[in-house]
Queue: 4 jobs
Job 1
Amino acid sequence: MNSKLKSAIALALLGVSSLSYAQTDVSLIIKNGQVLTMNSQKEVYDNGVVIINEDAIVAVGDESLLKTYTSKNIIDAENGIVMPGMINTHNHLPMIAFRGLGEEGIENRLFAYFFPLEAKKLNRNVIYQATRLGTLDLAQSGVTTYADMYYHVDEMAKATKEIGLRAVLGETVIKFPVVDAKDPFGGIEYAKPFIEQYKNDPLITPALAPHAVYTVSEAKFKEIDLLSAKYDIPVLVHVSEFGNESERIEGNTDKLSPIEWLDSIGVLNDRMVLAHTIHIDDEDIALVKKSGAGIAYNPMANAKGATGIAPAWDMYKLDIPMGLGTDGPMSSNQVDLWRTLSYAANMQRLKHNDRTIMIPEQVIELATIGGARALHMDDEIGSLEANKKADVIIVETQSANMRPSYDPYATLVYQANPSNVVTTIVNGDLVMQDRVMKNVDTDDIHQAIDKIESDIAAFAKELAKEAIKSPSLMK
């Protein structure tokens, strides 16, 4: 073999060798963390790596991935827990403007206090500014997606996108005039341009939110269902939060349960997300299972409101799509899920007198992929898997409250708090890194809330004096 041929072969082999070690450049790499994938096998990588390019996860695995991928942006998780962003499946986020009010022991809190307070003090600016505060609170605590039922959802969408979170925003439909609709059930018309504007948005999923079976008529439920089917959007609704809802349904002469009534009028389906579902029986659960509807389990709010304990364990065993919610900031006073995690487990253990059920791994499932299933979004979010959206959080494990950490699921459910979340990523974008918000001026948000608080305080105090005289509708 002549020397020229030898040289050509050597160069060719060198080229093949170089190609075999070429690295793929990506937008972000997270390394050196305990990665909880929450995939179907619940895989955990103790020295794990998450590879992100633009808005999607490319790969999840062990440190060998660092041989294949490179990035200018590498986050060292410093042995913290890397997990999917949490999903709050039920909220009324702008009510954070009223958080802490109405705690004087008012029995008829919803109708004698909540609704009059909203009627007097809500407006576009309050909803926008309160949503900014609420989404700031969510981002700082590791919630990357939330589902909400409220008013002026266009203002909520604007504020949510400023922070950088993902949201399912349901325009409330109810039988009396409200802040964004002068006519009863006016939320339907208000929702239509909102749906058109956001139907293809990368972060905002528009939805319809009939308030409850006792505040929305059969005809309006059917109209909402048709609109939901036309646009393939979710329907968010309160169901069986109170024990006397059957008697309050207009025209319910057969005394059907709320679940049975929704099924009987043909609107119980897999586009629905049912919040609370406390006062339901086995027949109701079977109908929910058959329909494919999702469940938003709100244990902390239900305990605080003394409305009861939902049969969440029974539904979990039947593999009904179910996630965790906080309800509004006047119901649990929280929008993050950390305290709700322990409530989710402990209320079921108390209900069933069984400390072996709803173990921490199952609770974290509800807070992540379970919430995604409940919102019918599990093909995009809820777990760390290739081709899913890059919604990721990092929870540090070096603070005193996090030590020791033998079982990451138990650490998260029973030890962690919002301040342990150090990094929040949504759709591949850094929303918070090392506890520093990336997209907003937090001082500006707090100053706006100071003004709102000053305006509301005196009126709220006087309203409470009247509201406390109103008997509970449960009586």
Job 2
Amino acid sequence: MEPVIETFESRKKHMCVKGEGLSIPVCDKASLPGTVTQRTCVFGGARIVLMPITDSIHLVHGPIGCAACTWDIRGSKSSREELYKKGCSTDLQEKDIVFGGEKKLFETVLELYNIYKPGAIFVYATCVSGVIGDDIKAVCKKSEDLTGCRVIPVQSEGFQDHNKTKGHWIGGDALLDYVIGTKEPEETTPFDINIVGEFNVAGDLWGIKPLLEEMGVNIISTISGDSHADEIAQAHRAKLNIVQCQKSSNYVARKMEKKYGIPFIKVNFFGLEQTTNSLREIADFFGDEEMIDRTEKIIERELMGVEDETQEYRERLEGKTVALYVGGNKAWSLVRAFEEVGMDVMMSGTKNGIKEDYERIKETVRDGTIIVDDANSTELARLLKKYKPNLLISGAKEKYISLKLGIPFCDFNHDRISAFAGFKGFVSFAKEVDASVSSPVFNLASKTLSKVSKTPKVGGDENAS
């Protein structure tokens, strides 16, 4: 069987075509040394789960580079404080590595508390603080006893695993161990929910929350977009958890079900069909006839407006192809949304996917779709040159590979500025996709953009030069 692209022998099984040979690609393995993976570390995985808590300080206990590299890593918006966007680091130096950084950490926590009086201080361990053995749990406990403020250790040393998914779990454990269940709500209703795994990237939450509130549900907390530590502390009293980003947050939902008996359902607010199904599933869970009736009226009203607003975009996008190279959740949750604007998903891949992610991708995409795991820059360029999609959906690290090949690009990662969730978000989604695909810039640009020189031939094993 012909390989998807020419690459190292050990990398060939990380790519497959649905309906041919491998059912899913080999995944969740350490990246091949020297191939310049696009992955993020465990520390980065924890940061993206916790950073959207807006009333909190996020303190990185490590060299300044760890904090600088992950500052505003989530692209989350806030309707309240901007405290979460403060870049805070203990800035460990050679002296701290030799003699230990615990004293410096303790003094930094006290200084930050005195300046900002935050709702919580999250202290992230990094590779360096882990290697030198700083006891951040003890420092956090001492600081919390002195200040009365939640000071929460996040044991997120980057070297723990090759996959940032473990960082998602570590961030979730920090909330489960130190925040959730530490405060009681002033009042409860029969329709209390938590939105789990919604990080308000570009304001996505604000396209979901009004729909849920109009249905009649009461949102105790969002974990963790546009949230406060005190709100998450009350999350244990919800009657239902709805899980949006299933890549990062199934773990938290399962743990809460085990610990507090809170059931959860998986939802998807990207695309019309998925948004509609999610709202109905929430209403059906509560079984309240008035809520079910209200939900149907909301859906009817919103769909009527969206159809008219997106017709022009659909006509131009019909039959165009798109390649997805995104996070594990988006690699399958966006597929139906693209089909709804008339596009064909010809490739779907992710950097940090686990078996569960690729099973979902396989269930969602059509036969003939390429499924890719942990493609490095060279592999991604070869995939784009060989299969020539009309659009690449990815993040900032892949943007310039696409543009230099003359392939339109749309950011669906943390750096985007347009909200795509919910019915109104779908209109923005269709508009932005159309603006990228239909832009005349690639007709005006030099044709040599896509005629890059051939890369050197790769041998059949890792020892090839």
Job 3
Amino acid sequence: MLLSNVAVNRTVVHTQLVSGSRSALHALSRTSHSVPVTHTHQRRHIFSHKRRLSSSTLAIPFALSNTNSATTAPLQFLSNVSLCRVTPGTITTSAKATAPNLDKMSAEAATTAAQASASPVEDSFLKKAVSCQSETEREAVMAARAAKKALRETKETWWAPYVALTKPRLTVLVVLSAMSSYALTPEAVSLTNLLFLTVGTALCSGSANAINMGREPAYDSMMTRTRGRPVVRGAVTPNQAFTFAGITGTVGTAALYFGVNPTVAILGASNIALYGGLYTTLKRKHIINTWVGAVVGAIPPLMGWAASGGSLLHPGAWCLAGLLYAWQFPHFNALSYSIRDEYKKAGYVMTAWKNPGLNARVGLRYALLMFPLCVGLSYYNVTDWWFVLDSSVLNAWMAWWAFKFWQQENVNIALAAAGKQYSQNPFARKLFWGSVVHLPGVLLLAMIHKKGQWDWLFGPSEDEKKKTLSS
């Protein structure tokens, strides 16, 4: 608390400090003389500027005791966290420490720090001034920093590399395609089935991706796109990646088997084998690897359809699978074109550099195939006929960029044959990002237009009424 009957002179020294803030403060006190104190102000106190002491600006509020009075009261120093007391004595400061001269005073103090000497009282005060936090608060701050650092190190060295092994963004896309198909099935659905389908599909996808990374660190290190993967960086070893893949694959398949049904479990296990085994091997053998990879992408919709007990012989299930299969080509062919030189350097046999014309032509061909596949979903009563209309907008958008990509590639091939220079195909990137938006958009529209979705609001269609009457 502040002591009464102590005459003080309210003085605030606002000193601009850099890393040597303590030295500047010491120099400030050593190069000054005593300031006389009057008795006109009683019970005055000043609170410190609410700013971290580590900042380049430090405000030092302090009160001066009356050294001329018979009774010398202890100096009171009040900060925003604690009250620091200094033993009686003469605390000195510059007689010219007025507001306009503060910056000049701090500069002069810093230059004369090595030539000055200070009394124990002055030194004690300044030490208190620059470290006026309580011990409890300092310990709490240090403990919080240590905990945050430990959490960050734990994340970087323990679970983050294993999450990266699963290729989270790709896994999310795989899970969403399975969930969308599950939502579109005409059979009854349940929350429990959906939960097991989601977890099991995610674990199976993560297992396949971990096997893929564990087998290719030497080649992934040659590509900018893949050199940051955990096995390449040494965050996990290939054996650890394979162990992780074995655990997640086993748990994922078991979740699908016991929580959904054996058909879905078989499809999940086959996807691990196709992606982690056949596709990864073919990447360095033949361009057919892209078609095998597309089959891998087509399996999750079949898993979602079968999860509700729907028959895999239903044409609607294969329209959904075909949708995912066809989408792979404009998406991946545009992606691989942009980094075709890196694929070639790493030894991956991709159509983008083996046969650029075929690469662009295949991308356009399968982009156009999206139109009849969406019509098929309506024809086989998976969606209503309005889906054909609005899905055609997204299909036309992606098909347009696929066409421009193919057209420009033909021009580039002609220029190369004539021995002329040509620039990078600018439509590859546009097609890639167009495909990223296209697939979620089409799946969302399909769920909105699911057959019978809006019968509660608009009533059943004429076809549904005829079916009801005939039955």
Job 4
Amino acid sequence: FSTNEVFFEKTQFTGPGTNILFGGTAALGPGGRQALTVDGQLNLRILNSISPNVFLSGTAEAAVRVGGTYEQPRLMGTASLSGASIATLVGTERLMLANVKGLVRFNQNQASIDSLTATLGGGRVTASGGALLEGFTLAKFRLSVRGDDVTVPYPQGFRTTADADLDISGSTREQIVTGTVNLRRAEYTEDIELATLINSRREASLTEGGGAGFAASTQLDLRVEGRDALVVNNNLADVVGSVSLRVVGPVEDPIISGRISATRGTLNFRSDRYELTRAFIDLPPRRDADPILNIQAESEIRGYTVVVSLTGPLSQPQATVRSDPSLPQADVVSLITTGNLSSGQTSTSTLAQTGLGTAASLLTDTLINAPARRATDKLFGLNRFEIDPLIAGRGGESPTARLTVGRQINKNLSITYSTNVTSDQNQVLALEYRVSNRLSFVARYEQGSVSGFSSRNDNFSFEIRFRKRF
């Protein structure tokens, strides 16, 4: 030892997967000289204590020579990885680079990646680039990263497969990630409650709960493109769409802007499927901005083609409805919300006339039907449960409500039972098989009235429904 140097004649560190040999002189202070050799293997698990959110495994091999002085050390040699893995937490999700293989070459104050390959989410990742060193610390770096057929669980709730060309540059204080992500498939299959979606607020950031570090100082400037790559298949929709987005800002809380457009698919509301004829969602380039909807869909309800349009911000959308053949607005609203025309033997229902039909339907669907549907699904296997309020009954009858239960047996086959909650039950049993969005078969049995006010016989019908646009 001396005041500014230490001499290693032959020092060896061994352990499970580790065998490192030091030799030569290492500078400890100003004026000290560097003449040190480091050779051997290092078990990367030793480095797991550096960060609680990074997990390393595998072996690194080093053959490095350190020269120069304490103030200006120079590195020469190589370091390599083979069969290594690197995992990190982003939010609550874990990303892991496996089968990492690479070679880094040191040349005085520079480090360059000769080759680096790995697998991520079943795809292949390659990287190249280099860094500028100040002593033994990283001053600046720039990496070019390419991913092919990589699958990751992002954004939250999605399973995304994509190709990416990224440039990552910066220093230990700040970093920026730029480039393009080309989506092959981004699939969302989780069920959504309509009321929760409308009343939702901005969710936690990607890295919340995962600590700070690299993510806290990283800026994004990415373009995300995908033609017919977006797939939504849940209780509300079965849709295929395209995306053209820009992601800008800190990785913890980026601003996402651009357009999402649906190319084909159906939407589900109550018991009816609506075929999309137009669907655009524009995301303004402002933080916490409401998505702007421009959606039009149509459905066949009791022989009428019903067209519904939603426009405006997601939190306060404006709805317009019409039908072919043309019906009064009140009847169209009633068809959508209850499946029946509002007018009976006397006059138009007070409920539909005053516009309470839509409100009552949304309230019952959100506050009663949705929770009851979840409960009956668990208890009895019924995934349809609805209560439709009717303030004015047909033919001047007393106010009542209609109970509907059903089961979606598979994607195309469903069975439904419906009855009035009165003494005149008017029970209906229907079995529907959908061959496609344009062709379906419906078998229907309707019980005749048992009330003294009217006389109707039991009725059985079989319908073939075919839709063709001219």
